[in-house]
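A.,

Following up on our hallway conversation. Structure tokens first:
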């Protein structure tokens, strides 16, 4: 009976000591002495771990190429080599960054060649209640922006008109998009059979080119660009393509439904023209 009491007493003492030591480790886990002890234990247990791995998988060790001998189907520096070192999610992010980099390259090339005084701005926000009518930029008065400055986006390597500055504060600007029903832009269809008209928004993805002659030679697929009349916008900037033709509600003119060259929900970065 005394022996059993002794065993219980010893077990209790050992448990108390272990709890005390554990509490010390927790309390001083960031001290240098504890970190050195932890590093020693890791180094001490590492060789047996490696030995167990080698015993369990001897064949896999021989199938791994030497550091200076790349696999036969993988050449360092190629797309195949890069893809083999990243997960699917990482490759997707790399693809997104690559496409974004291409957009920035096109934007700065166009700015340098055509609009050297233009200001680059990013879309900082959108109002869900006015999704087709406006966007908010991260530049304002302090950056040189003013009301009525034209705003361009870069699509497929060329500029396209998306709207104009409506309101400006110190560091933020609000843009009225072409899709706003209050937006009006003097436009034309280039070519021998071209005509002038006015592009208006519909509060949706579509635009409308109004005031075409009833005998208009405009046809589906024609490009519509700014005419430059009124000096509100520079001439020759693409707006969209004709998708359909119909008489206006009063039967006085023809009007064309347009597909915008830039969809408003895909705009991330813009050029603001300084007039």
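Then the amino acids I'd put at each of the 275 positions:
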């Amino acid at each position: 009976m005394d022996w059993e009491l002794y065993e219980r007493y010893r077990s209790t003492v050992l448990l108390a000591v272990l709890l005390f030591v554990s509490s010390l480790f927790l309390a001083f886990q960031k001290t240098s002495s504890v970190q050195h002890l932890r590093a020693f234990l890791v180094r001490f247990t590492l060789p047996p771990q490696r030995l167990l791995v080698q015993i369990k998988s001897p064949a896999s060790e021989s199938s791994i190429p030497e550091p200076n001998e790349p696999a036969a189907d993988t050449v360092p520096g190629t797309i195949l080599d890069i893809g083999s070192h990243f997960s699917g999610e990482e490759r997707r992010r790399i693809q997104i960054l690559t496409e974004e980099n291409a957009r920035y390259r096109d934007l700065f090339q166009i700015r340098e060649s055509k609009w050297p005084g233009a200001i680059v701005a990013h879309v900082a926000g959108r109002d869900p209640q006015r999704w087709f009518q406006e966007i908010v930029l991260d530049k304002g008065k302090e950056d040189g922006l003013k009301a009525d400055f034209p705003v361009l986006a870069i699509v497929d390597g060329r500029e396209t008109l998306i709207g104009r500055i409506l309101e400006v504060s110190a560091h933020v600007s609000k843009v009225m998009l072409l899709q706003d029903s209050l937006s009006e832009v003097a436009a034309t269809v280039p070519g021998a059979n071209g005509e002038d008209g006015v592009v208006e928004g519909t509060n949706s993805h579509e635009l409308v080119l109004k005031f075409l002659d009833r005998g208009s030679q405009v046809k589906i697929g024609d490009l519509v660009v700014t005419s430059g009349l009124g000096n509100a916008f520079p001439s020759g900037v693409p707006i969209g393509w004709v998708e359909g033709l119909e008489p206006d509600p009063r039967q006085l003119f023809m009007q064309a439904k347009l597909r915008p060259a830039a969809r408003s929900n895909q705009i991330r970065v813009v050029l603001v023209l300084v007039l």
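The first strand starts at residue 119 and ends at 125. Curious whether your intuition agrees with the design.

B.
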